[in-house]
Amino acid sequence: MSTPVSLDLHGTDLPDMKLRKNSLWRMRFQIFCRNKIAVVGACFVLLLVICALFAPWITPYSYEKGSVLEAFEKPSLAHLLGTDAIGRDVFSRLIYSLRNACIVGFGAQLIELTLGLFIGAIAGYVGGRTDSILMRVVDIVYGFPSFLLSIILIILLGHNIWAVLIAVAATSWVGMARVVRGQVLTVRQSEYIDAARAMGANWWQILTRYVLPNSMGPVLVAAAFGIPANMMVESGLSLVGLGLQPPTPSWGSIIADGQKGIFSYPYLLVYPSLLFAITLLSFTYLGDGLRDAFDSREA
């Protein structure tokens, strides 16, 4: 179980408790840094985010315009990863597809985190009928095929990136809510929570200042694994033609186009698939590192 935060109810932490909390986070950071694969994954994720943020300045060509006279050009200095069937630069399209994947991956995860924290924390801490009602809602959403629900929402909202983001988040928050609820149920039984009640803290103070901060380890790990999962859903929707529509680039649509010329122009499939796989692996290694760092037996 994570080390509790301070029980001071007047807005300031005691110096020794502050020191203990800072030492705990420093220890977790050191554990994470000892995992070399996790550090490599984190560095690659950071590089991907930088590329996504600065896509307009990194890409040498437009992602939507090309010339049929330059169709199917092999990788060269002019076109680092070659060109596609209508002469568009593959490198530029991959960078913008990365940008769209990050928007959906991180944006949907932020929504999932917000909904999961709110619903899971209320259900776990209040308990009783409130817990039963909220968990039945979670069970209903969880029991519905998530991919099918995403398709329905996209059809209703449109085939744009914000519709895809909402569709992905609407089907993924239930897992986060369950993680948060489980942690809150565990932490609220701690002795320092009883001490906070004895010192006059109300339920909102206890929940926001003591329960949630000591429940964030597994939540952060779940969030790290949730981002690539969201990217996979976005790519899967585009792969079957139901996500982002041309000329908006998506890993799924780029891979689908590359499959058509796999024998004649293998680079159209190899490079996008390789980057996609490395991205997912990097997030996975990052999540593994965070899980080890927040493991109670380690920290």
From TrEMBL:
Transmembrane region(s): 37-58, 103-126, 133-155, 161-180, 219-244, 264-287
Keywords: Cell membrane, Membrane, Peptide transport, Protein transport, Transmembrane, Transmembrane helix, Transport
Entry keyword RNA-binding: no
Domain ABC transmembrane type-1: 98-287
InterPro entries: BP-dependent_transpt_permease (IPR050366), MetI-like (IPR000515), MetI-like_sf (IPR035906), OppC_N (IPR025966)
Gene Ontology terms describing biological process: peptide transport; protein transport; transmembrane transport
Entry keyword Lipoprotein: no
Source superkingdom: Bacteria
Membrane association type: Multi-pass membrane protein
Subcellular location, record wording: Cell membrane
Entry similarity comment: Belongs to the binding-protein-dependent transport system permease family. OppBC subfamily.
PANTHER family xref list: OLIGOPEPTIDE TRANSPORT SYSTEM PERMEASE PROTEIN AMID (PTHR43386:SF24), OLIGOPEPTIDE TRANSPORT SYSTEM PERMEASE PROTEIN APPC (PTHR43386)
Name of the protein: Peptide/nickel transport system permease protein
High-level lineage: Bacteria, Bacillati, Bacillota, Bacilli, Bacillales
